[in-house]
Write a structure and sequence with these properties.
About 45% of the residues lie in helices and about 15% in strands. The protein has about 350 residues and is an alpha/beta fold. It has 2 domains: about 260 residues, Alpha/Beta hydrolase fold, catalytic domain (Rossmann fold); about 60 residues, Arc Repressor Mutant, subunit A (Orthogonal Bundle). The chain has an 8-stranded mixed beta sheet, sandwiched between helices.
Length: about 350
C-alpha cells in the first residue's frame, strides 16, 4: 500500500527538519502528531481511511514531530519539551502557507494545540482534543501506562506491540500488527524515553483561560486508560470547551465507530455543530444485517475469526456463517474485498 501523499520538509527556527504532508481541499485542519511515523501509518487501512475521508471536505496537514518518523532524528534528546513542539508546528504552518486553521490535538500533542491556540488566538478557528490533558502527567500516571513505559528500556519491540494493543486498543490482527510496527519504527528507545520524560513535565494549565477557539474534547477510554474526569476537567477549564463522551471502550478514534467519529469531528471543525451520529441497528445497505455489520467492522481492522467471536460473544462457527453471508451480499471474494467495501462506505 502506498505511503500516502508526497512528503515535504520544513525547517524549524532551531534547525530541525520536519516532514509533513498536505492533502484535500477546504478549510484547513492540522493533525498534530504524538509519537508518529506517517509513512507507516498510511499503511494501516483504518488510519488511511480516516485521513482520506477527512480530506474530502478539508485541507488536512499531517507531520512527524522532531525525533520521529521521517523528521530529523539527530536531535538533542533534552530538547523535546513544549517549546520544541511549538517550533515544529510553526515551521509546518509556515512551509505549507497556512495562516489560519483548526487543530486536532491527539494524546501527547493536545498540550501543543492548547499552547498554540492560547498564544495565537487569531490563527486557530476551532480545536479538537482527544486523549490529552493540560498536564501530561495526568494522562501518564495510571499504573498500566507506567508499566508500559518501563518496557522502553527493557524491550523496545515488546513495548511497541504492547502499546499498540493494550494502550491504544488495537486488536492483534493485521491492522494491530501494522500499528505496532509504526510505533516500533517511529523513533529510537533513547529518544522515546527522553520524549516521555519531557512530556511528564509539560503543564499548560495556566494557558487554558486564554484559549478563545471553540474546543471539542472527545473522550473514549477503557477502564484502565485515562479516566473521564481528566477530560471533564479539561473541557470545563476551557472558556469555550465542550465534552463529548463517545460510546465504546477502545482508547482511539476511527476504530470502533469510524463513521460516527468522522461525522462528529468534521461537522464540528467546519460548522461548530456537535451532533452524535447514531449507528443504525436495522438492516444496512445491500441487505447487510446489524450483526453482519459488527463482524465486518472487526474483520476490516484485522481481527481473526476467533478474535471476532470473543469480542462479540459468539462461536467461531457463527462468525464463519455471518462472514459467508456477508461476502455473498456485498460480492466480496475475501477479507481484502470486504475491507475495501467497509472503508469506502465509512463502516470500518
Amino acid at each position: 500500500m502506498e505511503p500516502g501523499p508526497e512528503l515535504n520538509y520544513a525547517r524549524t527556527s532551531d534547525g530541525v527538519t520536519i516532514a509533513y504532508q498536505v492533502l484535500g481541499r477546504g478549510p484547513a485542519v492540522v493533525w498534530l502528531p504524538s509519537m508518529s511515523n506517517l509513512v507507516a501509518q498510511w499503511r494501516v487501512p483504518v488510519l488511511r481511511a480516516a485521513y482520506e475521508n477527512l480530506a474530502r471536505t478539508m485541507t488536512v496537514v499531517l507531520y512527524d514531530g522532531r525525533g520521529t518518523g521521517s523528521s530529523d532524528r539527530r536531535i538533542e534528546t533534552g530538547d523535546l519539551g513544549l517549546e520544541a513542539h511549538l517550533r515544529d508546528l510553526d515551521a509546518v504552518l509556515a512551509a505549507s502557507g497556512i495562516t489560519c486553521s483548526a487543530l486536532l490535538g491527539y494524546y501527547h500533542s493536545a498540550t501543543t494545540a492548547i499552547a498554540f491556540a492560547a498564544h495565537h488566538p487569531n490563527r486557530v478557528t476551532r480545536m479538537v482534543l482527544f486523549g490529552g490533558a493540560a498536564r501530561l502527567r495526568d494522562v501518564m500516571s495510571p499504573v498500566q501506562t507506567q508499566a508500559l513505559l518501563s518496557l522502553v528500556d527493557q524491550d523496545w519491540d515488546l513495548f511497541a506491540e504492547t502499546a499498540a494493543h493494550a494502550w491504544m486498543g488495537w486488536a492483534s490482527g493485521e491492522s494491530g500488527r501494522m500499528v505496532a510496527e509504526a510505533f516500533r519504527t517511529a523513533t529510537t528507545p533513547t529518544v522515546a524515553k527522553a520524549w516521555f520524560e519531557a512530556g511528564a513535565r509539560i503543564d499548560v494549565t495556566d494557558l487554558l483561560p486564554q484559549v478563545q477557539a471553540p474546543t471539542l474534547v472527545m473522550h473514549r477510554q477503557g477502564e484502565r486508560q485515562m479516566p473521564i474526569e481528566v477530560s471533564r476537567r479539561l473541557a470545563n477549564a476551557l472558556p469555550h470547551g465542550r465534552l463529548v463522551e463517545l460510546p465504546g471502550s477502545f482508547p482511539t478514534l476511527f476504530l470502533e465507530d469510524a463513521r460516527g467519529d468522522l461525522e462528529l469531528l468534521t461537522r464540528f471543525l467546519i460548522s461548530g455543530e456537535v451532533t452524535l451520529a447514531v449507528t443504525p441497528t436495522g438492516p444496512a445497505v445491500d441487505g447487510v444485517t446489524a450483526r453482519e455489520l459488527d463482524v465486518l467492522r472487526l474483520l476490516a481492522v484485522g481481527d481473526s475469526n476467533a478474535e471476532i467471536a470473543r469480542r462479540l460473544g459468539i462461536t467461531v462457527h457463527t462468525v464463519e456463517r455471518h462472514t459467508a453471508n456477508l461476502y455473498r451480499k456485498i460480492g466480496a471474494r475475501g477479507r481484502a474485498d470486504a475491507t475495501v467495501y467497509a472503508l469506502r462506505r465509512g463502516i470500518a
